[in-house]
Amino acid sequence: MRTGILFLVSPFATETSTVDKTNTIVSISPIAHVKLLELRDAETEGAQLGLRLEILSQPGEDFRYDLSFDFFTKAAFSDEVRTIDGLKIIIPAKDVESFQGATIDHSDSQGLLIRNPNKPIAPKIEGLVNDDEISAEIETIVTAEVNPMLAAHGGFVTFAGHDKEGTAYFTMGGGCHGCSMSKQTMLEGVGTMVSEKIPAIVKVRDLTDHSTGANPFYS
Question: Is pTM, for the whole model, over 0.70?
Answer without folding.
Answer: no
